[in-house]
Design goal:
The protein is 35% helix and 24% strand. The strands form six sheets. Strands 1, 2, 3, 4, 5 and 9 form a six-stranded mixed β-sheet that branches. The chain is an alpha/beta fold. The longest helix has 26 residues. It folds into two domains: 106 residues, Nucleotidyltransferase, domain 5 (2-Layer Sandwich), CATH 3.30.420.40; 231 residues, Nucleotidyltransferase, domain 5.
């Protein structure tokens, strides 16, 4: 078959499943193809990765231009060497995954972590362009260029995109937000709360029940919403504590990044029970020594998931001021605003589209 477009093979690698997809011209060129990550040996696992890419390339009907995918760390992502993994214990001592796949397929291979690619996918195809479109439609002469992406699931991940560029860091460790400290217990990492196990632990503490008898997070959410019988007070208090810890992490990160915030991962589906509190915390105050208050952030945060929050965010009025000693005027936006929203693509799709966007940029393809 004659090649007509650019095709990128992607993979979302988790501890349970390996999900492969071919993407051509920013659209799916194959079905999702899944293989169980559980394997008896490293060789079996690596052969699954190769066969998965082979399958979606076959479905796409064309020779691929590159492979680009997410894989858990720690890793040297630029060299494509994967270190010791907790969720994939067969990966030990450093595995040269990039070079192996380049030898096998004879095309460029790019590897990043899922938080990075999630953020890039939402920056190129999700929340960021959607928000900028709404600003333009509202007649606001301002566009956002920076995005903090967060994933809440088995763990807590993050990614930063600025002007379409993924922030990697010098050691492939940029945006490792899971290493921030837990606001409720500074001796713990924030991931001890902002994860599946964290939500369950919070509920077990609030409900005074054994951890092994604690419902799963989705059921805790349903209890909190009154959709399922259970200790509703404990459920709502658990998500409230979750929100306080999440807001602290976002506040610390966004003070450096100054951009939109998008949240994904399985736990993001519970946002009706935590997102409003997150935004309220971001708009709170610090106490100054000697008395008085100072705003938690230099910017004001708005919840993009309801009409009131979206309208407030879009009300950005440009002000004209006179240049001293002249008749000239210049305009600026005196009110500094950021928006906080939930993934527009869905986490897995955002990761795949981020992988596509990363490879397309590296190879000089158009978006």
């Amino acid at each position: 078959m004659k090649k007509t477009n650019n095709t990128i093979l992607t993979l979302d690698a988790g501890g349970t499943n390996l999900v492969f997809k071919a993407i051509r011209d920013a659209k799916a060129a194959s079905d999702d193809f899944s293989l169980a990550a559980n394997s008896d040996s490293l060789e079996e696992l690596l052969q699954k990765i190769i066969s998965g890419f082979r399958e979606v390339e076959k479905q796409s009907g064309e020779k691929s231009d590159a492979i680009s995918f997410s894989f858990p760390g720690p890793a040297d992502y630029e060299k494509g060497i994967i270190g010791n993994l907790e969720n994939l214990p067969l990966i030990r001592g450093g595995v040269a995954l990039k070079k192996m796949l380049e030898n096998e397929f004879q095309i460029p291979v790019f590897i990043n972590n899922d938080g990075d690619l999630f953020a890039l996918g939402e920056a190129m195809f999700g929340l960021l362009p959607e928000t900028n479109k709404k600003l333009k439609e509202a007649g606001v002469n301002k566009q956002y260029k920076n995005l903090l992406g967060l994933t809440l699931g088995t763990g807590f991940g993050g990614g930063i995109v600025s002007n379409g560029q993924l922030w990697m860091g010098d050691n492939s460790a940029g945006a490792e937000i899971n290493r921030m400290s837990n606001y409720l217990n500074r001796n713990e990492s924030v991931e001890e709360v902002l994860s599946i196990r964290g939500v369950k632990r919070l509920f077990s503490q609030k409900a005074n029940c054994a951890f092994e008898n604690t419902p799963e997070p989705f059921d805790i959410y349903r209890i909190g919403m009154g959709e399922k019988k259970g200790n509703r007070k404990a459920a709502t208090e658990a998500w409230e504590s979750f929100a306080i810890v999440l807001a602290d992490a976002i506040g610390n990160a966004i003070s450096l990044i100054d951009g939109l915030v998008v949240i994904g991962g399985g736990l993001s589906g519970a946002h009706p029970l935590f997102l409003q509190r997150v935004v309220a915390e971001l708009n709170g105050d610090f106490t100054k020594t000697g008395g008085g208050k100072v705003s938690r952030l230099e910017v004001s945060a708005y919840k993009l998931e309801n009409t009131e929050g979206l309208i407030g965010f879009l009300e950005q009025k440009e002000k004209q001021i006179t240049v001293p000693f002249s008749n000239e005027t210049v305009s600026y936006f005196p009110d500094k605003k950021i928006g906080v929203g939930i993934s527009r693509l869905g986490t897995s799709e955002a990761v795949a589209m981020g992988a596509y966007a990363f490879a397309a940029k590296m190879l000089g393809f158009n978006k």
